[in-house]
Write a structure and sequence with these properties.
single chain, Hypothetical upf0131 protein ytfp, 2 domains, three-stranded antiparallel beta sheet, globular, disordered N terminus
Length: 318
């Protein structure tokens, strides 16, 4: 994803990738809605993979070279993960609980395609086939152990690449049904559920890493914007305010402004606050905003064809 030089918080969105990024944000927000509403974790995980898939398509469009050889779907997905971090961010990523929990998940994740190719019996997967199908997960765990013992860049990159490979396997597993020639694989639902619970926090982290710094951005359109009655809620947080444009409409509920993000609606001028201290203050701001609002991500235009992904408080539907 192209970013402005000297800033990892800006996306250069052009005609080729704009709507892919819009779709990605929509899928991401839908996943958060599913989590809040206690929906299926598998469906939530699938929405997050759809979000990453849209970012993957946008990234390919942004970096397409007519002379470059196209990569397979799996390689494009792995490259998206590999290219998500600077060298410094890679080191930080390898310490994240979200990644470690996936690596240490037991039993190891099996590749459903390998099971199907072997015409497996869903009620009796033999140990040799189970070992073959779970090879990528075990290799990832081995690579991570090597990295922990020796912090060389080659081990660091190997862990990130194998993490992307394992996530792609999870994505493919979820897309496959439970039907087999030897009957339904009832245990697959149990496996997918257990894996999804661990994968979801990592996918959320990766999405935010790829779009760049969204947790440092607040889009304000109402009472906490500069000069308004509730601005003191965030006035002590160090940061920078700039003007931005968003598409939607503002309605009034119980005397308070509530924003609906609708692309086909008119452009509204809003205020965007960028601060490295926002992440540690989100819980307090969420509490202040209350149950009438939900915090989600949307793109905001800060220059001609230059967009930034930020948090905004939207209307919470009953």
């Amino acid at each position: 994803m192209a970013r402005r030089k000297n800033s990892r918080y800006m996306l250069s969105i052009n005609r080729k990738n704009y709507f892919h990024i819009i779709d990605a944000v929509n899928h991401f927000n839908n996943a958060l809605d599913d989590l809040e509403n206690d929906m299926s974790v598998i469906a939530c995980c699938e929405s997050l993979f759809k979000a990453l898939n849209k970012l993957q398509t946008a990234s390919i469009n942004d970096n397409t070279n007519s002379s470059s050889k196209p990569h397979s779907e799996s390689k494009n997905f792995i490259r998206l993960i590999e290219n998500s971090f600077s060298d410094e961010e890679k080191i930080d990523f390898l310490t994240k609980t979200e990644l470690i929990n996936l690596i240490e998940l037991s039993p190891p994740i099996m590749n459903h395609r390998i099971l199907k190719d072997a015409n497996y019996d869903p009620m009796n997967i033999n140990l040799d086939l189970e070992r073959e199908a779970s090879a990528i997960h075990r290799e990832l765990k081995d690579s991570y152990m090597k990295y922990c013992l020796d912090k060389k860049p080659k081990y660091q990159n190997d862990v990130i690449k194998k993490s992307g490979n394992l996530l792609y396997i999870i994505r493919s597993n979820i897309a496959h049904g439970e039907k087999t020639p030897k009957g339904p694989d009832i245990r697959k639902i149990e496996r997918d559920t257990a894996v999804s619970k661990v994968a979801i926090p990592l996918l959320i982290f990766l999405f935010k890493s790829i779009v760049g710094g969204s947790d440092q951005n607040l889009i304000a359109y109402g009472t906490i914007a500069p000069g308004n009655i509730n601005h003191q809620i965030i006035s002590d947080i160090n940061g920078k305010w700039i003007k931005c444009k968003i598409n939607g409409k503002i309605k009034t509920i119980d005397g308070l402004p509530v924003f609906d993000w609708i692309l086909s609606e008119k452009t509204i001028v809003a205020d965007l606050f960028n601060s490295n201290d926002l992440p540690k203050n989100w819980s307090n701001i969420d509490k202040f905003e209350g149950s009438m609002y939900k915090r989600r991500l949307i793109p905001a235009e800060i220059d001609d064809n230059t967009y930034i992904i930020g948090n905004i408080y939207l209307a919470r539907t009953p």
